[in-house]
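Q: Convert this sequence to structure tokens.
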Amino acid sequence: MLQLKIKATDLTGLVYRELLDVQRNAEKAAGGVRELVKRHFEARGGQRFWGEAAESVEVAGSSKGAVVGIYQRGVALRFFGGVVRPVRGKALALPTRENKTDLWPREFDEGELHYMAPPGMHPMLYLPGKTHKLTREGKLRKGASVSGDGKIMFVLVPQTEHKADPSVLPSPEEMTAAALKAMTTAN
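A:
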């Protein structure tokens, strides 16, 4: 019978090298997933939200491998769904399509936006044009319509509900394939 004695101290360097290989492979795999997720977001279109989401995807090493993080606010809400309620006010201000600014209501000059509460509709923040059709209380003047040369900039709602959308991210199978491909591809 042949016996080989191996001391734990003799294996320290080998174990360390193997752990480094595991870490490198995890980071390669995460890099492949990061690139897939970035392309997926870019394919959804738009420079604003999805473009910023693509730029926010990062890889970070961890003690157990690597992590792909998506740091764009709102991506998790779209993926998991949920309810959004106001934190600092009584309502959420949702920008309308007419609103071509990057400003939120608090960023407009005081008195620039006017409050309007048409019967049976959500309240709105209105940017009046030359012919101002609102009373001081935010009601439409008698016989006036919402249309005119002004713009409705925001609709005020008490909350928004979002359904989960798994298509926000690539499928688990696509992410696994991207991870494997990245690990097996030579540097």
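The chain has four helices and eight strands.
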